[in-house]
Amino acid sequence: MGTREEAPAGAAFSPHEAEIRDAVARLCAPFDDAYWLAKDRDGGFPDDFHRAFATAGWLGICIPKAEGAKRALIAERLKEARNV
Asked: Of 28, 31, 40, 56, whose Cβ has the fewest other Cβ atoms within 10 Å?
């Protein structure tokens, strides 16, 4: 990833939002511009990117439990992400 983005002008990230941003940034770090350019050039699904987010528990976090999502709160994911 390039430079870390800040909150929109006039807004500030809450500590909780900053933790989410940082946890996601750590997951995205291995998937730099070269990775995405290669995916654009060669095609195919980014399985390793998808797997990284699934392994860290971020996939399905916005899916309602009624639709089959596990009961995983963002706060729980953050606790786990701190240990990565």
From this structure: 40
